[in-house]
Each structure stands twice: as structure tokens, then as C-alpha cells.
């Protein structure tokens, strides 16, 4: 089913993002994560795609497993960076043949070891070009990425929303937002979208705190601010107590989700980092307070 159809049902959606495992040990852990999260009956799941095609085969296998074996609605991501058009077409055709109905069109970031002068001249520079290419050649339901705090390379937050509007106008059906630790960024982003004529649904991205190192690294990579409230909460925890940190992360994200749901968001999209404990804790917590219904 297309995400646009699922969103029409009017209930906030629940979705989980996965990335392909890089080692056998990680694959075992991912299998357990998938089983734990599929049990929560998400509306859809999603699978990342390494820029430059680095995870092309792994992404395909994971999409296939989730679609065929686990019978999940899947949003397959496609990051266009450094890919030639025939490579993009091959990926899209493979997903179409698998029965995938939803694609998230991304630019992707240049991997650190890539010589950008070697990028094929024909490859797309911006996600808007990939979105237009998909819309012209395929009938997928099409998602794009949005940045509540502005994209890290954008010249300004105003320009970023103009570029997002242009990207959406290429035929996007929904937006998945980058994560944020303060809801005010997302709520302001929704207001900017509306003011700029972006009318498609925007799903907030939720990134629970898994570890301090990971939180700082991920937030640093995308320019997400770590608010004082979160910093203070973490500083009160016993040092090195992983369980206390994960529990606090669950509680913090639950607070974010409750407020977002009260504000009428169209769904909750969890960046699982291929771990289940936090997402299970948050979703069960929200359901116990009747903030989310089972599909
Ligand atoms: C939900 C989500 C999922 C993601 N999944 C993946 C993944 O699976 N694989 C991966 O590699 N990365 C992924 N990313 C990261 C993403 O690829 C990076 O954030 C990347 O830097 C931007 O991708 P984009 O599609 O938003 O690019 P774009 O929309 O092309 O924007 C990139 C930058 O260019 C600017 N821009 C856009 N159009 C123009 C223009 N015409 N002129 C000048 N500037 C312009 C924008 O303001 C922005 O600063 C994901 C991000 C999100 C939010």
C-alpha cells in the first residue's frame, strides 16, 4: 500500500527505520530487532541506502526480507549521490519488481573516502532531481527528507525551505523529518512548511538516546541541537550506567512523542539504529496512555 493511502486513514502512523547489517553479529541482532518491532504492528518500516550505492545489495536484501518474509509495508530509500542514471534505474526497477510501492528520494552525503572529482558528471546534484526523475518514470509513492533545524549545508533556513518546496513540487507525497531533541524546531518547521505552501504530510523523526557518544556524534553530523533539558537530565544519571541512560532516553522521547501527538502530528517515525529496546519501551508506554492505537 502507498504511504499516501495509509496517511489518509487519519490515525497517526507508526514507523521504524532500519539499516542493513554490516557483520554477521549485527545481522543476528537486527533479526531480533525486526521481530520485536514487527510485533508492534507498525504502519510501515523503512530501509536506508548507503550513499554511492555502498549498501545497494544489503538494502535490497533487507527490503526483500521485510516485504516478503515479514509482510511489512516498506519505504525503500534511495540516495542518488555519485550514481549514474542506469544504476538508479536498476535499483528502482528491482524495487518495483519486488512490489515496493514507496521510495524516499535522497541526495546522500559523499562518503569520507570518496574523491568528489570522480563523481560521474551525469549524477544528480540534489534530491529534487532524483524526485523529478522518479515521478517522470515510475508510479511509486514518493517521500523526501526535511530538516526542522535546517540542513547543515543550507545557506539559510529560509533558502532551505525554498529548496524543500521545490523538491516537494517535483511530485513528493510525504516528508520524513530529520530527528530533533526539542519539539519547538519541528513545530516551527511545520509552520514554515505551511507558510511556504508545502501541504503534504510531514512525519517527525524520533531518535531516542542510545548512548551519549552516539547522540553527540549523530547530532553533530546533522546539526541537531542538544537542549539544556536533555543535557541536564543526562548529567543527573549515575556515570556509566547504560541502563539508566537508555531508560532516561525512553522517558525523554516519550515526552517528545506525547507533545507531538497532542499537537496533531501525522505519525511518529523512529530512527531505531537497529535496536529495539527503546522503540518498544516508547511505543508500549504511549499505547498504555492511549496516545497511539494499534493499527
Ligand atoms: C529521513 C532521512 C533519511 C535519510 N536516509 C539516508 C540514507 O538512507 N542514506 C544516506 O546516504 N543519507 C540519508 N539521509 C541523509 C541525507 O542524505 C543527507 O542529509 C544529505 O546531506 C541531504 O539529502 P537530501 O535528500 O535532503 O538533499 P537535498 O534535498 O538535495 O538537499 C541537500 C542540500 O542542498 C540544498 N539545496 C537543495 N536544492 C538546492 C539548489 N537547487 N541549489 C542550492 N542548494 C540546494 C539544501 O538546502 C540542502 O542544504 C537521510 C536523511 C533523512 C532526513
TrEMBL record:
Q: In which pathway does it act?
A: One-carbon metabolism; tetrahydrofolate interconversion; Amino-acid biosynthesis; L-methionine biosynthesis via de novo pathway
Catalysed reaction(s) here are:
(6S)-5-methyl-5,6,7,8-tetrahydrofolate + NAD(+) = (6R)-5,10-methylene-5,6,7,8-tetrahydrofolate + NADH + H(+)
Q: What is its EC number?
A: 1.5.1.54
Q: What class of enzyme is it?
A: oxidoreductase
Could you give a GO molecular-function term held by this entry?
A: FAD binding
Q: Provide this UniProt record's keywords sorted from A to Z.
A: Amino-acid biosynthesis, FAD, Flavoprotein, Methionine biosynthesis, NAD, Oxidoreductase
Similarity remark = Belongs to the methylenetetrahydrofolate reductase family.
What protein name does the entry list? Answer: Methylenetetrahydrofolate reductase
Amino acid at each position: 500500500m502507498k504511504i499516501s493511502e495509509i496517511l489518509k486513514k487519519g490515525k497517526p502512523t507508526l514507523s521504524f527505520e532500519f539499516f542493513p547489517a554490516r557483520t554477521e553479529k549485527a545481522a543476528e541482532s537486527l533479526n531480533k530487532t525486526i521481530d520485536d518491532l514487527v510485533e508492534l504492528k507498525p504502519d510501515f518500516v523503512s530501509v536506508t541506502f548507503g550513499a554511492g550505492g555502498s549498501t545497494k545489495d544489503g538494502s535490497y536484501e533487507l527490503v526483500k526480507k521485510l516485504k516478503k518474509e515479514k509482510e511489512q509495508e516498506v519505504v525503500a530509500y534511495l540516495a542518488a549521490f555519485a550514481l549514474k542514471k542506469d544504476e538508479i534505474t536498476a535499483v528502482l526497477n528491482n524495487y518495483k519488481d519486488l512490489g515496493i510501492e514507496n521510495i524516499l528520494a535522497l541526495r546522500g552525503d559523499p562518503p569520507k573516502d570518496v574523491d568528489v572529482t570522480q563523481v560521474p558528471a551525469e549524477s544528480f546534484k540534489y534530491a529534487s532531481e532524483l524526485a523529478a526523475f522518479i515521478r517522470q518514470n515510475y508510479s511509486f509513492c514518493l517521500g523526501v527528507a526535511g530538516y526542522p533545524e535546517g540542513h547543515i549545508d543550507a545557506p539559510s533556513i529560509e533558502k532551505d525551505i525554498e529548496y524543500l518546496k521545490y523538491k516537494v513540487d517535483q511530485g513528493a507525497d510525504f516528508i520524513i523529518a530529520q530527528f530533533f531533541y526539542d519539539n519547538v524546531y519541528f513545530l516551527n518547521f511545520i509552520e514554515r512548511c505551511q507558510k511556504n505552501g508545502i501541504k503534504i504530510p510531514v512525519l517527525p523523526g524520533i531518535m531516542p538516546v542510545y548512548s551519549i557518544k552516539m547522540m553527540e556524534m549523530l547530532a553533530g553530523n546533522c546539526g541537531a541541537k542538544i537542549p539544556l533539558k536533555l543535557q541536564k537530565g543526562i548529567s543527573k544519571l549515575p556515570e556509566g550506567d547504560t541502563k539508566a541512560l537508555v531508560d532516561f532516553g525512553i522517558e525523554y522521547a516519550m515526552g517528545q512523542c506525547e507533545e507531538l501527538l497532542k499537537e496533531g502530528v501525522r505519525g511518529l517515525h523512529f530512527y531505531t539504529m537497529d535496536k529495539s529496546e527503546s522503540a518498544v519501551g516508547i511505543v508500549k508506554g504511549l499505547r498504555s496512555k492511549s496516545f497511539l492505537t494499534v493499527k
